[in-house]
Write a structure and sequence with these properties.
It contains four helices and five strands. The chain has 146 residues and is of the alpha+beta class. It has one domain. Strands 1, 2, 3, 4 and 5 form a five-stranded antiparallel β-sheet that branches.
Amino acid sequence: MRTAVKISAIVLAFILASAITLAQNNQCKGQKQAKVPAIKGLTYHKARKKLLAAGWRPLPKKSVSRTKNPEEIDDPDILAGNGPIFWQRGYVELESCSGTGLAYCSFLFKDAYGNRLQVVTSGEELPEQRIYAKVNSLKLFCRGQN
């Protein structure tokens, strides 16, 4: 189990590095797309509301049960860090969370034109202390792009 969590953290770090490199351009040239609102630095909860209002829809990546009990979550990609908190809130777009480092989490959305938007957060999610993870980076995958 620990190996799976470590692998998830490494994969998420790679995704973040790629997202930071490519996040400068949030437009699909010559293609229709939903507007990408300015969400960098916002809490994920506020950013998610703006994305939904702009036409982005959660793209579920997990097929695990919709349990609300953290002890019943068996997917190593969402078991660590902020994963159980976001999963319990019904954020089906959650791809993975790291259990170490800067507490990165990755979320995936899709627009009506087939484009995908990956949102990466960092920071602890401690609602009882009014501390929330914030959007760190974005990566737009235009339709037809891997």
